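re: ur msg from earlier - yeah i can do the fructose -6-phosphate complex, just paste it... oh wait u already did. ok heres what im feeding in:
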Amino acid sequence: MVVVVAQDYDTMSREAAKIVAEQVRRKPTSVLSLATGATQFGLYAELVRMHREEGLDFSQVTTFNLDEYLGLAPDHPASFHYYMRTRFFDHVNVRPDRIYIPDGLAADIRQECQAYERAIRNAGGIDLAILGVGRNGHIGFNEPRTEFGSRTRALFLAKRTIEANARFFGGDENAVPRQAISVGIRTIMNSRSILLLASGKAKAPVIAQTVHGPVTEMVPSSVLQLHPDATLIVDEEAASQLKPSPEGFVPGPGTRTMVY
Ligand code: F6R
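and the outut:
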């Protein structure tokens, strides 16, 4: 896997945005999967800037968000619908009929999950999956012990995830839904390319496990070692527990790139 270490959060966000922009310019009909979370704030802000100032065109792009809480209305400020609308979709030109986010209020959740997988297939599969990672290694909301063969489904959130995400619910753990819909590990692994972002000291142990650790369902992000085109973009703090690559590194402006 390729690991780009950026000198700080803003550089990480810009480098990630460059990769997304390159994908969209190379293939204007790209299918992207999108993550929410605090890590991605800077990425979406930079993509919005590129759209406004550089004409980055999303008009033919299709997007699939990775996950959504069960039971939250799309206008709830902590829902991923709300996050995506306010941080990205309201400011760029993705066509509304090409935006997919799991419906956490669906009457038939199983059917919703199956339809979501079908929609991804019908769109031609995911070209670029943008991921964040939880401190416990979750990608999407695929918590430790999720089978690598999993697809889109409803699941229970880990206690650590509920604690970590309370910050989006005014600090109140009791307000965090216990369940969510998430695309599965296999859905993610079927993407042609994967881009995972991580920043801050708290993510350093999981980034080391992702890159160096055993590939195990106990650390879902470790599965990315098996993907032929996975790139991690992390800031110095998140990279602080990585071992040097035996192949050295390639320096760039504000970055160094390693291959493991
Ligand atoms: C959310 C998602 C999650 C987050 C992860 C990190 O759509 O996919 O896997 O990426 O929980 O969240 P932050 O960035 O808030 O640390």
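cool cool. The chain has one domain: 12-199. ping me if u need the other ligands too
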